Amino acid sequence: MVIGITGAKGFIGRHVMRAAVAAGHEVVAFSRGAGIFLPDARQVREWRTGSVPDLGGCEAVIHLAGEPVLGRWTPEKRAAIRDSRVVGTRRLVAGMEACRPRPGVLVCASAIGIYGDRGDEELSESAAAGTGFLAEVTGAWEAEAAAARGLGVRVVSGRIGVVLGPDGGAWPLLRRVFGLGVGGRLGSGRQWMSWVHVRDVAGLLVAAATDSRYEGPVNVVSPGPVTNAEFTRSVARALRRPAIFPVPAVALRAVLRDQAGMFLDSQRVVPRAAESLGYGFAFPELEGALRDLVGG
């Protein structure tokens, strides 16, 4: 297939391109930068949030573009987070409508933030949406993607968890902090973390684009969620460092304010859809993922 990938220059985008090419597909990359070279793309097209992209020749689209959620949530930052996802996806669907022939599938990145703070509740794709800024943004994001169904396009919303990769996601910061011996649990440590290795993110998103059985929400997380306390102990063990400096919830809230929920909310998300369709996780358990990252 010819797969269009937005946000192709980003951390996840690079891995998705690599996985698509390794599976025998061709990639048309979309990026905000004009004239850039991406080694895994046969072509790079410029596209910005406010414009309608040229999707000509793309048989599938994997949509990853969006403003990073990290950073101080000023009103301007909140607007950028929302608009880059909601308006950007609306423009992408407009590009699909204008295209002949149209791409047959849209795999739109989403996030487990849609579930909000849910304690010990096990969250499959059928779980109701939660509350809060990220839940509201993600719900609106998925609604814009769903509009493509009216064009006869198969739509998948890949709800991505905490991504671990050697060259991006949460791992570089974790390695730095724990490597200095100042790591520890966040808050009570009882909150659930639904993590995923970037290789499985790429594998699942490409599978969703190329396998017509994937439809609707798909939790892009490993089958082995862990509590924050378990997660930090495992990271410390993998790096052979202590994990003795817990960060109290009150301190996180004082420093991060609204963003503290990103680290304190409990989301025990499970990949029921992927498992039912037979996706074979490269890293189903945290210890194996960490061994790969430390070795890398």
Question: Describe it for me?
Answer:
The protein has 296 residues and is of the alpha/beta class. Helices cover 38% and strands 19% of the residues. The chain is built from 10 helices and 14 strands. The protein has helices spanning 11-22, 75-98, 133-146, 171-179, 198-210, 228-239, 249-256, 261-264, 272-276, 286-295; strands at 2-6, 26-31, 43-46, 60-63, 105-111, 122-123, 154-160, 162-165, 168-169, 192-193, 195-197, 216-220, 226-227, 268-269. Strands 3-2-1-4-5-7-12 form a 7-stranded parallel sheet, with helices on both faces. A 3-stranded mixed sheet has the order 9-8-11. Strands 6-14 form a two-stranded parallel ribbon. It is globular, with a radius of gyration of 19 Å. The two termini are 31 Å apart. The model has no long low-confidence stretch (mean pLDDT 94).
Short description:
With 296 residues, the chain is an alpha/beta fold. The chain has helices at residues 11-22, 75-98, 133-146, 171-179, 198-210, 228-239, 249-256, 261-264, 272-276, 286-295; strands at 2-6, 26-31, 43-46, 60-63, 105-111, 122-123, 154-160, 162-165, 168-169, 192-193, 195-197, 216-220, 226-227, 268-269. It has a domain at 2-161 and 197-221 and 269-281: Rossmann fold (3-Layer(aba) Sandwich).
